[in-house]
């Protein structure tokens, strides 16, 4: 039996009385492959995730439903990460280095979700998250940047 047949081949027509033995056997092989593929997918996905995905009778449709669920999840994650990054301000409870590293981590997560931002924007965004007591540092950075130096975050 071909396990992935239902993924590679479109569903054949449902056999009728006048169908040939080959057509009936082809449909039966496809149906078994579809059933096994669906069972494999369901057994591989956790119950908490499985409940949020619309169940389909065909494996190709099931995979599309799973893909759509995760696209929605990615969009929600992007929104959450952007909100977190925009609201981050250095408050002195941790070191500046740790604050910057947390922001870099969020930026890396956004990049993995195909959200690109220029390095210049990110540097200014991070600098703006620092309180006013870091103004001399910000001024120094901006002055040196104009002279061709850059900050490697």
Number of strands: 0
Our count of helices gives 7
SSE string: HHHHHHH
Looking at the structure, what is the overall shape? rod-shaped
Strand content: under 5%
Largest sheet: none
Helical amount: 55-70%
Low-confidence stretches: none
Protein name: Retrovirus-related Pol polyprotein from transposon TNT 1-94
Pfam families: Retrotran_gag_2
Organism: Vitis vinifera (Grape)
Short summary:
The chain is mainly α. The protein has helices at 5-8, 21-44, 47-50, 59-87, 96-112, 119-128, 135-146.
Features:
single chain; 153 residues; mainly alpha; 2 domains; 7 helices; 0% strand
Please explain how this structure is put together:
It is rod-shaped, with a radius of gyration of 27 Å. The protein is built from 7 helices and no strands. With about 150 residues, it is an all-alpha fold. It is about 65% helix and about 0% strand. The mean pLDDT is about 85.
SSE layout:
Elements: H1 5-8, H2 21-44, H3 47-50, H4 59-87, H5 96-112, H6 119-128, H7 135-146
Helix pairs in contact: 4-5
């Amino acid at each position: 039996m071909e396990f992935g047949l239902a993924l590679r081949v479109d569903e054949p027509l449902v056999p009728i009385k006048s169908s040939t033995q080959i057509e009936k056997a082809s449909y039966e092989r496809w149906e078994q492959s579809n059933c096994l593929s669906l069972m494999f997918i369901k057994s591989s996905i956790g119950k908490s995730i499985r409940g949020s995905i619309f169940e389909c009778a065909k494996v190709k449709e099931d995979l599309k439903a799973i893909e759509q669920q995760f696209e929605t999840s990615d969009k929600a994650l992007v929104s959450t990460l952007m909100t977190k990054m925009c609201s981050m301000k250095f408050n002195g409870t941790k070191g500046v280095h740790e604050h910057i590293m947390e922001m870099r981590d969020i930026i890396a997560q956004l990049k993995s979700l195909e959200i690109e931002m220029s390095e210049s924007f990110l540097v200014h965004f991070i600098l703006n998250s620092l309180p006013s007591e870091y103004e001399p540092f910000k001024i120094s950075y901006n002055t040196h940047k104009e002279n061709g130096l850059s900050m490697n975050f």
